[in-house]
Amino acid sequence: MDKKDIKKVVLAYSGGLDTSCIIPWLKENYNNCEVITVTADIGQGEEVAPVHDKAIKSGASKAYILDLRDEFLREYAWPMVKSGAVYEKKYLLGTSIARPIIAKYLVDIALKEGADAIAHGATGKGNDQVRFELGIKALAPQLKVIAPWREWNIKSRDDAIDYAAAHNIPVPVTKKKDYSMDRNIWHLSHEGSDLEDPSNEPKSEIYIMSQTPEAAPDKDEYLTLDFEQGVPVAVNGKKMEPVEMMETLNEIGKRNGIGIADMVENRLVGMKDRGVYETPGGTILYYAHNELENLCLDRATYNYKEQIGIRYAELVYDGMWFSPLREALQAFVDETQKTVTGTVKMKLYKGNIITAGSTSPYSLYSKEYVTFGEDEVYNQADAQGFINLFGLPLTVRALMKQGKLK
C-alpha cells in the first residue's frame, strides 16, 4: 500500500511524548489523513483523564478511550500468573503482557472505522514495535502498520520534545526529567535518563507504585490470598473482582516496599537494556501462587511446569501471545491448575515476603508419611532397594572406570 492510499489511520495513543508528536506528523506526511486515536485504559490512573481532549486538540478526528482493566487482568494477567512466567528471573512482564490486548482493540477499531493503517509510537530499538505488529499480523494482516520512529527525522527524545514545542503540543516530560515510563494496573517501568548507566543506583524519588524498603513501616503485616484453580479470588478473606483485587494488593505491596526489580535484560532486538520495574501487587500474587503450587502439584508436574514458565515468559516478552505455541502451553498450564485451590498466608516486612502457612483441600502433603516420628505407612527399609536401582547407572560407570566391569 502506497502512502497516497492512506486515508484513515488508527493510532495507539497514550498522550505521552511520542504519540503526541505522531498525530501532526501523520497528517503532515500521509496526505493530511484522518487520525483516530485509541487509548486503552489498563490502569494508567490519572494519565487517562486528559487524553481525549488532548488528542482532539492535536488533530485527531475521534478519540476512543476503552476501559479494559478487567479484561486485561482476567484474560491476560491471570493466565500469565497461572503459568509462573518470569523473564530472566526478575521481570514480571508488566509492559509485555499489556501489548496483546492493546493490539486486539487497535484492530477492532481499525476494522470498525474502515481504516487503512494502524500506527504506534514504539521506537525502532525496542521490543514494543514487535509486540504490537505481531499482534496485528495475527489478527488483521491486511492492515498496513506505520511506525514513525522508523521513518521520521526525530532521532532522540530531545528532538521529540523540540518537535512538540514547535507544534504547541504539551507533553509530560522535559529535557531534565525524561524517563521513559510505562504504567498499567500491573506495574510501572522506568528506562532512560540516568538509568542508562547500569552503575547508577535508581533515585528513590522515581518510585510511584511502590517505595523503597527503608521507607516501609518497622512493623510486619500479615496477608492472606485465596485461589480457585490458580486464579486469585479473595484478599484477607474478602472476595474481590480483578480490578479491586489488584488495586488492593498494589496498595498493600506499596506500603511494605514490595516489588522493586532493577535489572539489565536482553531485548528481543539484540541489545541489553536496563529497566527498573515496580510490581507490588503482582509480586505478591506470584509468590502466593507458587507457594500453593508447592502444596498441590506433584514433583514431576511442578518441575516440568517450571520449564514451561520460562518458555511462556519468552513468548510473552517476544510478542507471541496469539501464537499456537502460547495457546498450547496455556492448555497445559490450565490443566495443571485444576487442583491449585486454597489459601496462602504471608508476612510482609520491608520489601520481604515471608511464608506464614498454606492450606488446600487438594494438598499432597501428608504428615503421616513425612513425620520424623513413628508411623505405620512407610517402611524405611524399602529405601535401600530404591537407592540401589536409582544409582545403578552410577555404579556401572564407576566399575567401568575402575576396569572391574564384566
TrEMBL record:
Pathway listed: Amino-acid biosynthesis; L-arginine biosynthesis; L-arginine from L-ornithine and carbamoyl phosphate: step 2/3
Keywords: Amino-acid biosynthesis, Arginine biosynthesis, ATP-binding, Cytoplasm, Ligase, Nucleotide-binding
Gene name for this UniProt entry: argG
GO biological process, one term: argininosuccinate metabolic process
InterPro entries named among the record's database cross-references: Arginosuc_syn_C, Arginosuc_syn_N, Arginosuc_synth, Arginosuc_synth_CS, Arginosuc_synth_type_1_subfam, AS_cat/multimer_dom_body, Rossmann-like_a/b/a_fold
Protein name (Swiss-Prot/TrEMBL): Argininosuccinate synthase
Molecular function as annotated in GO: argininosuccinate synthase activity; ATP binding
PANTHER family from the UniProt entry: ARGININOSUCCINATE SYNTHASE
Class of enzymatic activity (EC top level): ligase
Limits of the Arginosuccinate synthase-like N-terminal domain: 8-170
